Amino acid sequence: MKKIEAIIRKSKFDEVKEALIAADIEWFSYYDVRGVGADREERIYRGIVYDTSYIERIQLSIVVRDINVEKTIEAISSAARTGEVGDGRIFIYPAEDAVSIRSGKRGDATLYVEKK
């Protein structure tokens, strides 16, 4: 199992969500996050200076079976890509174990619903 964390543009969230669903990744968590990028810029609006170096993004957190890692990365990458600076990052970590609270199952069997 792997844990995939992706930081993407807020404007691309719906496209990424649809791409993940199309890739049969049906469960993930997401959070509103802010970060600081390399670009430093101030904007003036009605005489007030705003610091725009804080970048609003969405962070996705997904745990998948090893066989689904590449298609998950591809779904996120293709849907989130604009080709401009600030498209985001994807991080992949090993996930040692998972436990279903309801059923007590362990391992990657907790990541999908078995078809009957």
TrEMBL record:
InterPro entries according to UniProt: N-reg_PII (IPR002187), N-reg_PII-like_a/b (IPR011322), N-reg_PII/ATP_PRibTrfase_C (IPR015867)
Positions of modified residues (O-UMP-tyrosine): Y50
Biological process according to GO: regulation of nitrogen utilization
Single GO molecular function: ATP binding
Transport listed as a keyword: no
SUPFAM superfamilies: GlnB-like
Keyword entries, A-Z: Phosphoprotein
An annotated GO cellular component: cytosol
Protein name according to UniProt: Nitrogen regulatory protein P-II
Organism whose genome encodes this protein: Candidatus Ordinivivax streblomastigis
